[in-house]
Write a structure and sequence with these properties.
Radius of gyration: 28 Å
Structural class: mainly beta
Shape: globular
Strand content: over 45%
Helix content: under 10%
Distance between the termini: 36 Å
Length: about 575
């Protein structure tokens, strides 16, 4: 971003002010509020929106703020406020400012802002913004802490403070739903609400399965139209978008390989009731474009080098497919055992409430998304076990590969080499869910690795329990990540870290997380940072050996609780330990 373009932005800068003084409440305090307490506290939060040529900025930018007593900026009030690199997401950012106790005396004030984002040669002046103050809030208890800023020391908090959780916005006391979480108005018949990553909004779109089936074909051991699933599918020659078929499969075990066809939907009588299995071929079921698979179990226990229960092959261009309420069992005894595999740039599949499991192979993958494929995963359980050398509950990798997972349970365990609940080498967006790894070797809840890897995680739980290196999240190999809330925990093993950034890590930004390393035989870290850029704000970091450590690169900690000593040379602003508060230094 060059300076000239950003100066032009001053005219169209959109600023949302929430001038409320900070109030912090200590849950353990039993002191009654004092109705006669004097107003106190001088810090306030400032929320703004930053655009470049009309486009919201998403970057980490340095910002500097000055307070003035006149619109011309001739008389400065208080000292300059320099904010550490600030995370700007879709144009929005929040900073905490403090110009001192005499800054606001009832007279008009103007805020001067300078910003430097990636590519800017220096600070760019965005002009002055008129401020309208909101009511003062009262302070809260800081009992037991030393180094507390002046004005926060009377241990009284008479103000109820509200904060907006995930999906909500709080503006001047009014809660609203943020656009990415706001569903559209009722959709028309044949449409469903779908989330688009292009604009991060929900839209009414045509159901991926198209029109309701016009024809019904029944497969049953007796009394149906066919006794074979594949024979029923092969009998259909005129299936089309406006002429779909449903093949319903009665309870029973069907020992056959199945290749689905476009606009021919396959539905069973329920998981464990309708079972399609094959033990003498590497693939049990091939998915097809514009079709759906529902309410049955698909299994494969062949001994080929690679075995698949369900495969969407790159050569079949499987787009617009849906798999819902299906149990998948990859039980092959060869080298690679896959539950469900989606491959190729023209492959796009939605998985709803899948129960996928893989074991028996040397390498076991419950779900694989590879080489540009796109997967939308909602709910469901993805597990690997069985003593393989390498187990990956979910493996997503390759240029152009995208994974969107909401409320997923992914568990990888019982390996002699390495367990990963999620291995991400593409673009992954996670919303909620559990990612847990347990193994006799290394164990990572999430392994984000490679130059193609970008991870965006919202309120996830990542856990690891291992024997050797054990990490809640391992950011590695030029990968980048953004963490919005969530818990990252590593336990046992010889060496633990809630967050581990390798020497080849690119960048990680985290806000509102907890990172814990504990119970290792050697060293426990909350965050172990060894390369690249890492900025952590409003978080809790805990490790018996080091709550935070940096060996190389840049580690910035802001408004964060540090439970354990700090090692290396991170940069700290407004951090605290169990007993002390540090304004501009690390413990």
């Amino acid at each position: 971003m060059n300076a000239t373009k950003r100066v032009l932005l001053v005219i169209s800068l959109v600023v949302v002010l929430a001038l409320t003084f900070v109030s912090v409440r200590t849950a353990s305090s039993g002191q009654e509020p004092d109705p006669q307490a004097e107003p106190m506290g001088t810090a306030f939060t400032y929320q703004g929106q930053l655009k470049l040529d009309g486009t919201p900025v998403s970057d980490t930018c340095d910002m500097e703020f000055r307070l003035y007593a006149d619109a011309a900026g001739a008389t400065q009030v208080g000292s300059s406020e320099v904010s550490m690199p600030v995370l700007v997401t879709d144009g929005f950012f929040t900073v905490e400012l403090d110009f001192g106790g005499d800054a606001f005396n009832g007279e008009a004030r103007w805020l001067g802002i300078q910003v430097q984002c990636t590519g800017d040669p220096g600070m760019v002046d965005l002009g002055l913004q008129s401020l309208t103050p909101a009511p003062y809030a009262l302070g809260a208890p800081w009992s037991g802490l030393s180094g507390v800023p002046i004005g926060f020391a009377d241990n009284v908090d008479n103000n109820t403070t509200y904060s907006a959780g995930t999906g909500l916005d709080l503006d001047h006391g009014v809660f609203s739903i943020l656009p990415p979480f706001l569903l559209p108005a009722p959709c028309d018949h044949g449409e469903v609400a779908k989330f688009s990553t292009k604009d991060d909004l929900w839209h009414c779109s045509a159901d991926a399965t198209g029109s309701p089936p016009s024809h019904l074909v029944i497969v049953a051991k007796s009394g149906g139209d066919f006794v074979s699933v594949q024979a029923a599918i092969d009998s259909i020659g005129d299936a089309a978008e406006d002429n779909p078929y449903l093949v319903w499969v009665a309870p029973g075990v069907y020992d056959e390989q199945v290749t689905m066809a476009p606009y021919v939907h396959l539905q069973g009588a329920g998981q464990g009731a309708t079972i399609i299995t094959k033990s003498d071929t590497s693939v049990t079921l091939y998915l097809a474009a514009y079709t759906s698979l529902r309410d049955l179990t698909v299994s494969n226990n062949d001994d080929s080098w690679e075995t698949y229960a369900i495969l969407a092959s790159a050569s079949d261009n499987v787009t617009g497919a849906l798999v819902a309420n299906v149990e998948v069992q990859g039980l092959g005894s060869g080298n690679y055992a896959y539950g469900c595999a989606l491959e190729g740039a023209d492959t796009s599949v939605t998985l709803l409430d899948l129960t996928a499991h893989a074991e028996g192979g040397t390498y076991n993958y419950a779900l694989q998304v590879l080489d540009g494929a796109a997967a939308i995963v909602e709910g469901g359980s993805y597990t690997t076990a069985g003593g393989g050398t390498i187990n990956r509950a979910i493996y997503s990798s390759g240029s152009g590969t995208t994974l969107e997972a909401t409320g997923v349970r992914a568990v990888a365990e019982n390996t002699s080499g390495g367990s990963r609940a999620l291995y991400n080498g593409g673009s992954a967006t996670l919303r909620g869910g559990l990612y847990a790894a347990d193994g006799a070797g290394t164990a990572y809840g999430i392994h984000n690795v490679g130059s193609n890897a970008f991870l965006e995680a919202h309120s996830v739980t990542a856990e690891a329990l291992g024997v050797n290196q054990t990490y809640g999240l391992h950011n590695d190999g030029d990968a980048s990540a953004e963490l919005h809330g969530g818990s990252f925990t590593a336990r046992a093993g010889s060496y633990t870290a809630g967050l581990y950034l390798s020497s080849t890590s690119n960048a990680l930004v985290a806000n509102g997380i907890s990172a814990l390393g504990e119970d290792a035989t050697s060293l426990n870290y909350g965050v172990n940072h060894n390369g690249g850029s890492c900025t952590i704000t409003h978080s809790v970091l805990e490790g018996l050996y080091r709550s935070a450590y940096t060996g190389a690169g840049t580690l910035r900690l802001s408004h964060t609780r540090l439970l354990g000593t700090v090692g290396g040379s991170p940069t700290c602003l407004g951090v605290s330990t169990e007993t002390n508060f540090y304004t501009e230094s690390c413990p």
